[in-house]
Write a structure and sequence with these properties.
It contains three helices and nine strands, in the order E-H-E-E-E-H-E-H-E-E-E-E. It is α+β, with helices and mostly antiparallel strands. The protein folds into two domains: 68 residues, 2,3-Dihydroxybiphenyl 1,2-Dioxygenase, domain 1, CATH 3.10.180; 56 residues, 2,3-Dihydroxybiphenyl 1,2-Dioxygenase, domain 1 (Roll), CATH 3.10.180.
Length: 128
């Protein structure tokens, strides 16, 4: 049996704002944007086509709205792996992405925590 995690839902306040950030700022590919009436199926993927996609899911309830930016209780729960940390860190900073810390070297690789505009905490990571 072969299985893979294909996508993760990320609760966002607005489809278009999320697309602007992930596609226009971060350079992700807009893989799908399907109008389903009252909602859309929006899937973005990191450039290079490796790893899981994100389903940008617009919050519809009060409970979902409270979870925007805090789906993991304040922990980092998304990990953007790169083959060139310094290149991507500099590019992200130039685009206005907010890093919470300076890059640091860990036994598993070079890493720095950043936040998307919705409050989600990410690691930018280049494995050792």
């Amino acid at each position: 049996m072969t299985q893979a995690i294909a996508a993760l839902a990320l609760v966002v306040p607005d489809y278009d704002a999320a697309i602007r950030f992930y596609v226009d700022v971060m350079g992700f590919d807009l893989a799908e944007d399907v109008d389903q009436g009252r909602k859309r199926w929006v899937r973005v993927s990191p450039p290079g086509g490796r790893g899981a996609s994100l389903i940008l899911a617009r919050a519809e309830t009060r409970q979902q709205n409270r979870r925007i930016g805090d789906q993991s209780g304040g922990r980092v729960f998304l990990f953007l792996e790169t083959d060139d940390f310094d290149r991507d860190h500099a590019s992200m900073q130039a685009a206005g992405v907010v890093f919470e810390e300076a890059p640091r070297q860990e036994p598993y690789g070079k890493v720095a925590i950043w936040r998307d505009p919705f409050g989600n905490r990410w690691d930018l990571l280049q494995r050792a």
